Prior knowledge:
Blueprint (H helix, E strand, L loop, with lengths): L9 H10 L14 H15 L6 H4 L10 E5 L5 E6 L4 H17 L7 H20 L20 H21 L3 H14 L5 H8 L9
Antiparallel strand pairs: 1-2
Helix pairs in contact: 1-4, 5-7
Amino acid sequence: MQRAVSLSNPKVIEKIHDNFVPCWSNSMNGGPAQQWQASFDQQLATYENSTYGSVFRHFPNGTGDTNIVMFFCTAEGQVLHALKGYWEPERLIEEIDFVTGLRDTLLKQKLPEEELKLKLADAHRERAQALRKLPKEASRPQEPRAIPSTCPSSNLQKKKEEQAEQAAKAQAFTPQTWDLLAQGHETQAKAPLQEVLKAADEWNPMKQYGGR
């Protein structure tokens, strides 16, 4: 999902390749993923079967947080920021800009590690506070699938009612984008500059299902 949509966006590609050395790792390693996969498949089906149509176009921001995580790290492998789940290109670019800002304003100062950790924690808390002050933004676009022009007039009203019902359910189900992002920054503020292997091991969804 992330690779097929956001990480295939030309602006995202440019941002990442201009500022990072991208790497990919599969945390499943062939482990017993049946329970985890069933849960994720059920979540996908919720959107595939909805009136909204394509799950790839309308997958909610922040969804799939046990499926994918992006770690933004220093050259030494310490985590500056982590984004769990799927994020639309616009939101992803904003978070990339935040990380590059940390690099340009803090890392280049060559501060002692403990002082750097304090400043990074402050930066994450400030970002979280700023996000929570923004107007609420639903984490998925509320754009229904177009009703085919060939739809019989007798079914038209029913289709419109189905769309309205799906819109209400999606709005109630979906957390708000800014709250999700703020939660991520608050988490990072509690453990700045964590070693990426430790962070990945703590996140690894397979652990709860008996895998690695």
